[in-house]
Amino acid sequence: MKTINIETIVNTDLDTVLRSLDLPLFKKLNPPFPPVKVLRFDGTAKAGITHLSLNFLLFKQEWISENMESGYREDGQSFQFVDEGKKLPFFLSYWRHTHTFQALDSKSGPATRITDHIQFKGRGLMGLFLQPVLKLQFLYRKPVYRSMADGRYLRP
């Protein structure tokens, strides 16, 4: 099993980050390739489903994940949800993505650390190239996450 860990600091409070976790932000987090069509997005709640269609130009693949865990940790200063792949593209045999959002004390004001912890298994030769490709896909998210600080994705 391979893992990827990416941390991003967002210069806003945890509540603003959590109220931004909705469909408009989710769509923005997806890199340009492969183009993604969101067929279903239930958000971060436990048992929520995310159903995607990935367009690789010559063929399409479905990706369905279910949120297995969701909620505040005991300290009340962090929130986490975990999605697991139920139907994956041909190049993946396993997917577990833990999203952690932790309030930080910062001299310059409120901040939140977002951690993407991804565990996955690739299939065949594709597995050899998968880690750097997936890492780039998640690094793409860093500026999008940081843009939450201005409140543009806030839902009421």
The Rg value, from CA coordinates, equals 16 Å
CATH topology group: Alpha-D-Glucose-1,6-Bisphosphate, Chain A, domain 4
**N→C terminal distance:** 39 Å
Give the helices and strands as they follow along the chain: EHHEEEEEEHH
The best one-word shape is globular
What ranges have pLDDT less than 50 throughout 5 or more consecutive residues?
none
What structural category do the secondary elements indicate? alpha+beta
- The CATH architecture designation is 2-Layer Sandwich
Number of strands: 7
Number of domains: 1
Strand-helix topology:
Layout: E1 2-10, H1 14-19, H2 23-29, E2 36-41, E3 49-55, E4 60-72, E5 78-87, E6 92-104, E7 111-122, H3 126-139, H4 141-146
Antiparallel strand pairs: 1-7, 2-3, 3-4, 4-5, 5-6, 6-7
Describe what this molecule looks like in 3D.
The structure is a single chain. With 156 residues, the chain is α+β, with helices and mostly antiparallel strands. The chain has one domain (2-149): Alpha-D-Glucose-1,6-Bisphosphate, Chain A, domain 4. The chain has helices at residues 14-19, 23-29, 126-139, 141-146, and strands at residues 2-10, 36-41, 49-55, 60-72, 78-87, 92-104, 111-122. Strands 1-7-6-5-4-3-2 form a seven-stranded antiparallel beta sheet. The termini are far apart.
